Amino acid sequence: MTIVDLLEQNAEKFPNDVALVEINPAEKETRRMTWRDFELVEPTLHTPHYRREITWNVFNEKANRFANALRARGIGKGDKVAVLLMNCIEWLPIYFGILKTGALAVPLNFRYASDEIEYCLKLAEVDVLVFGTDFIGRVEEIADQISKNRLLIFVGQGCPPFADDYYEMTLECPSAFAKVPLSEDDDAAIYFSSGTTGFPKAILHAHRALLHSCRVEQAHHGQTKDDVFLCIPPLYHTGAKMHWFGSLLVGSKAVILKGTSPETILRAVSEEGCTIVWLLVPWAQDILGALDRGELKLSDYRLSQWRLMHIGAQPVPQSLIHRWLKYFPHHAYDTNYGLSESIGPGAVHLGVENIHKVGAIGKAGYGWETRITDADGNDVARGQVGELCLRGPGVMKCYYNDPEATEKTLRDSWLLTGDMAMEDEDGFIFLVDRKKDVIITGGENLYPVQIEDFLSGFPKIKDVAVIGLPDARLGEIAAAVIELNPGVSCAEEEVMEFCRGLPRYKRPRKIIFAKVPRNPTGKIEKPKLRRMYGGDGLVAAQNQS
After folding, report:
1. Between 56-72 and 91-100, two packed helices, what is the crossing angle to 10 degrees?
2. Fewer C-beta within 10 Å: the chain N or C terminus?
């Protein structure tokens, strides 16, 4: 069985039930409407929005039509089709259409510049690029180079002359597709690492890994047919899609929301009856900030059905969750840990029953094993810091076209995550930091996540990132980049006074008031901060302040 079979089963069992809804706040009805069975819904609250939906049967038909269009152009088992789209209702039918042919789906980060797009297409040996309106300019810059041996397919209005029109390609294609035999061991997808520690690597996964992520998500969060999942993060990333896989497994509705403002999120939950919402730390912070300032009132929304809020993709400050539960005391809370190399979230899982362990990422998830090891690969004692290692059906097959990186990361079927962690006396795992982010100051190891978690408890701080900066005497010092809450002023002396609650050697030696940059999946872009504030960048920042 593969996830393709799950889609086809849902189309048979629940043909007329809604599978996907797309909500685009404030967008007028200008989109090209060539698909049947979309429903436009009039706005009921606040600002207008644009809504489309498809049933499970239509979802499957659209996947079949795209699969037939690809097959007609010679694309089949083992070929590779890249997807460069913003979140939209076309995204997942295109993804499943690729998988139905036996080709590999290759999602691309929507932030990639033209040179990064070209790099990833070459690295993954992509045969077809599917791209949307937002990327016309970037693709046009490299069209001459990448179109020589690749098919370019455009999704949207106003197809550029260097690409084929997706809607015209699929309009006359049959809605049934002759099934391609697929096994769980067949290659399924290539995902790219987030690039927070360097240029992206191509991560190859088998169908087994995708299917396992469905089972992991449903086992952890107990999705039923009646649940409604709100999907906000980018679908190119494993996190959003693999959480949605729990909905796929039980045939429940999912809402793709194109917007991250607090009002937009609460309105979608209210109007669509969402029961499960996966947030990134910044979005949760924004919701809490809007509630604190009185900009939002919970009484304006229908939220009683919302049963689960969970966060992943980055360390979660304990103070954030405690604040959240004051506003939403009836919510179950969970966090999941994973990497694109482990097909996204769920390799380590806190569990809604373990709210007393907020701050931990949890224990080994469904079907997973964990170890924490020293530099020689030996298990460390509980309470000691080491590298977190994972083993299970969701581990990647390899870094595609990069045997050297694969050898460094996969050891005897264990995935070396590069994350430093420790296990407490109860067996719960706490993230300490990325191995490459550890700060060595005067011979002492500082773990930025621990300092960030402490500083996040200061009421004036919205977001914080701790990085190491060069120091002639100590080698490195800890610098805290602090983003304040809107409308708040704060002096460096206030932060330093608050930090007296830390051991002296853990206190940051430098405070920088600035915005904390995060990528689309919520991870702090620490290489960017080190470039900005290391050496001359720090001097420039000081001169501007």
Report:
1. 50
2. C
Query: Residue 404: what residue type?
Result: E
pLDDT tens for 502-523 read 878 788 999 999 999 887 666 7
- Enumerate the β-bridge partners of residue 468: 478
Half-sphere exposure of residue 536, counting CA atoms within 13 Å on the CB side? 0
**Strand, helix or coil for residue 333:** strand
User: Of 208, 228, 251, which marks where a domain is finished?
Assistant: 208
- Exposure string of 279-312, with b = 16+ CB inside 10 Å and e = fewer, is bbbbbbbbbbbbbeeeebeeeebebeebbbbbbb
Output the domain CATH number for residue 480: 3.30.300.30
Q: Is 389 helix (H, G, I), strand (E, B) or coil?
A: strand
pLDDT at residue 441, rounded to an integer = 75
The contacts of residue 10 (CB under 8 Å, 6+ apart) are 19, 56, 59, 60, 248, 251
Would you say 322 and 330 are in contact if contact means Cβ atoms under 8 Å apart? no
In order of 87, 235, 422, 426, the CA distances from 349 in angstroms are 26, 21, 15, 14
Q: Beta strand pairing status for 363-364 and 414-423?
A: unpaired
Residue among 261, 258, 210 nearest 234 (CA): 258
pLDDT, tens only, 188-240: 999 998 654 456 899 999 999 999 999 999 999 999 999 999 999 889 988 78
Contact between residue 98 and residue 132 where contact means Cβ atoms under 8 Å apart: no
How many domains does the chain divide into? 2
Last residue of a domain, one of 176, 208, 240: 208
**CA nearest neighbour of 485 among 286, 327, 253, 311:** 286
CATH assignment of the domain containing 152:
3.40.50.12780
Q: Distance from CA of residue 361 to its chain's centroid?
A: 16
Cite the DSSP H helix spans in 24-127: 56-72, 91-100, 114-123
Q: Give pLDDT < 50 ranges for the chain.
A: 28-48, 196-197, 536-545
pLDDT at 473: 63
